[in-house]
Amino acid sequence: MKSNFAPWIVVAAWGVSGIFCNHLRADNGLSTAAIRVVNCDQKVQSHKRGICENKMSEEDFRAFAPGVSWYYNWHFKTDDQPPSDVAMEFLPMAWGDRPESLTGLDTYLQSASKKPRVVLAINEPNLKGQSFITPEQTATLYKKVKEIADRYQLAVVGPNMSLGSPGDGSIKAMDPIENKEVTYTFMVPFLKAFFFYMGDTEVSATSFHSYGNIGELKWAVEMMHKEFNRPVWVTEYADWHAGSPQDAREYVIQATDFLERTPYVQGYAWFKERATNNNISLLEKEPGKLTALGQAYVDMPVHDADLYYHIPGTLPAGNYVAMDHMDIMSTTKNALLLSSKGANSIVDYNIQVDVPGTYNLGLKTLGTGKIEVLENDQVLASTDANASEVQTIPLSITLPAGAQTLRVRFSGNGQILSSLELTPHA
Fold first, then answer.
1. Residue 44: Cβ-neighbour burial (10 angstroms; 0-12, 13-18, 19+)
2. pTM of this prediction?
3. Are both 240 and 325 inside the same structural domain?
């Protein structure tokens, strides 16, 4: 089981540009049967978002459920169960190379009334004090876990790597690629050796843990995908050295938004529900009471391509489906703002229109520069903004019925978008 002690950190602090995925449709004939339509102010539970936990009450589950869909405890079973009317899923883990991990996992899967989406395997084999086994042993254990998971048609996520480790806390082994003894202080050489020993056996996803700053997290996620060309899970993350709860809150907003919008990230879990490091705890001691950090974690919007917002209504800026050259910002009340990074900064919003016609569009914005609203690369409206304080800019656009994607494009640097209000034209 993961301890509460500060993990070894490998920090990589450099800028990483935002990931942009174009979800624009060529036409408006998308069937509503293929999409999810929600109200603009509705909270949506993230399929990706999870929690590492040791002990949660029914009240705790209720507090998390509006935004969090899964949890795990580094074990193959749990006594912590959500109330019957709360949709949160437990993911079992085969922690390390011990017989009870395998027999326990098999017994759990046999008896589970609802099978988990995946099985987690092998916690930090490269770090002393955790499962701590060589790449070859890790591959052997992974194959045993996969043999069990295959019986239930389940994918395996793992090994769940420590990003880095100190020399005296790292596993050593004869490396099959370097043909020499290696001390694996970084997860990538370990994983390359692991894949060597896996041979043709399928590994469906990679997974790792990050406790550094936002630069480290972004770099590590993108590097893992490029190195191994597989979906990525981040099964533990937090800024362990956040100087204050406010710093931790800013990190969780930046990091969680990045993980949500990155299409090849399949799942992530915050460490943890209650931690000895109070700055990163999601819950107060009182059952079901979220910290400011926990509330921010639960409230973070999702960016799923199949999620559309029903108008009329006021759509918060953070409820985008994709963006490019934009930064996300927060207010003290957990509202999310977007800030442009120069010419051709763009952000896309999925909307569902029941009644075609002319709509009033109020853009709540701040800053100087041109703002254009487009659909399918056609400019529907534009304005030259010059606002030194937040104001609502009124525009008029004509929309067909159906599911569609609006794009907002900015020409200036530091233009702020707070919300989009769409109402029928009188």
1. middle
2. 0.91
3. no
Cα-Cα end-to-end distance for the chain: 61
R_g of the chain, CA atoms, integer Å: 23
d(CA 212, CA 175): 27
Q: Report the chain's mean pLDDT, rounded to a whole number.
A: 92
Q: How many domains does the chain have?
A: 2
- State the DSSP H helix or E strand holding residue 307, giving kind and residue range, or none if neither: strand 307-311
- H/E stretch holding 63 reads helix 58-64
pLDDT digits (tens, 9 = 90+) for 296-314: 999 999 999 999 999 999 9
Angle between helices 135-151 and 99-111 (to 10 degrees): 20
Q: How far is CA 265 from CA 148, 165, 317, 330, 338, in A?
A: 25, 23, 22, 23, 22
Strands 345-353, 307-311: pairing kind: parallel
pLDDT at 426: 78
What residue type is 263 in one-letter code? P
Residue 28 domain-assigned?
no
How would you classify the pairing of strands 413-424 and 357-375?
antiparallel
Mean pLDDT throughout 310-339?
93
Q: Is residue 32 part of a domain?
A: no
Bridge partners of residue 351, in order along the sequence: 309, 404
Phi, psi of 136, deg, nearest 5: -65, -45
Q: pLDDT tens digit string along 163-209?
A: 999 999 999 999 999 999 999 999 999 999 999 999 999 999 999 99
Where helices occur in 68-180 by DSSP H, the ranges are 99-111, 135-151
**For residue 415, which of 329, 306, 297 has the smallest C-alpha distance?**
329
Residue where one domain finishes, among candidates 299, 316, 342: 299
